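Q: I have 366 residues here and want to know how they pack in 3D. Can you give me a structure?
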Amino acid sequence: MQTEELYIKHSRVRALLRREGLDALLLRRVSSFAWFTGGAAGYVTTNCEIGPSSILITPDAKYVITDTIEAPRLREEEKLEEKGFILRIAPWYESQDVVAQLTSGLRVGCDGPYPGMVDLSASVSSLRRSLLRQEVVRFGVLGRACGSALEKAARSVTPGLTEYEISSLVAQEAWARGITPILILVAVDQRVFDFRHPLPTDMPLQRYAMLVLCGRNWGLIASCTRLVHFGPLPADLKRKQESVARVDATLIAGTRPGVRVADIFGAAVQTYAAEGYPEEWTLHHQGGCAGYEGRECKATLECAEVVHQGEAFAWNPSITGTKSEDTIIVGSDENEIITATGAWPTIAVEINGRTILRPAVLELPL
């Protein structure tokens, strides 16, 4: 199953170990588990970064280290033994250091801090970011599903619904499409202006709502934001949304193979200033490279990363009261906005002879 994908990833791990002069690699992060297994879920709670199951790649084998609770699902539903993994199962009620047993005498790296091992978190992140064609296909399916889920929920909101109730609409649409909603943010009216990360509350909607979804499937995470306004959109909000759309389009247009992320970020900062909002970029991060983490790295003016074809990026510029966010895949000729459905109103932004469509605020009748 997924022979080519898993073989390439195993080959890349072996190359990493040779470069680092190591014998084995321990993958403990939920994101790394999903990446190396071709999309298997190694977590139980959705908010954890380190799951109850881990992977150990040694010179002779690929192990999944787990307990008697997780093993049946990993074997029967994730088919990990059929993918060439050896399950090392410890009783859930006993403390056994299986990792120590399997790595005795070996020089070992890990995808994060771990006693006695070399921290290879940055290198493993780079491996996760380099998406194979199979992953790009899966990501496209996920992105379209996330966009569809969020937009259907957004079109379903009505004045009087609380943020809790709106978030439940988003969750329902996500789960119905096989998407795990790892993040849902909802703000209504003044809270859209007050908070960049608005956790839902019991505040009822009057006129204006922002809905945010980060959805996961096959370990991949797609992010998108949509805004809804009941009644005519005030002129100041319309201007802000048009401005943030131009910032977002600048980021998307600049995300091309070989371009430094710091330079993309710098161009966005300049666009903020040109639009008359020179300080807004300081109030929230602008996004960055995505994939098996919501953001594998966040862009800054000092970021040393360079864009590569096949990587995913999720930019999320904001101007107080407005925001623009979708997930893209960097292509050889142009970028694909995978969370765009084509069914949402858009703002057309011309950059270097190309038109980039960014989401507008959906205006609904009162």
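Q: Anything worth noting?
A: The chain has a mean pLDDT of 96. The radius of gyration is 22 Å.
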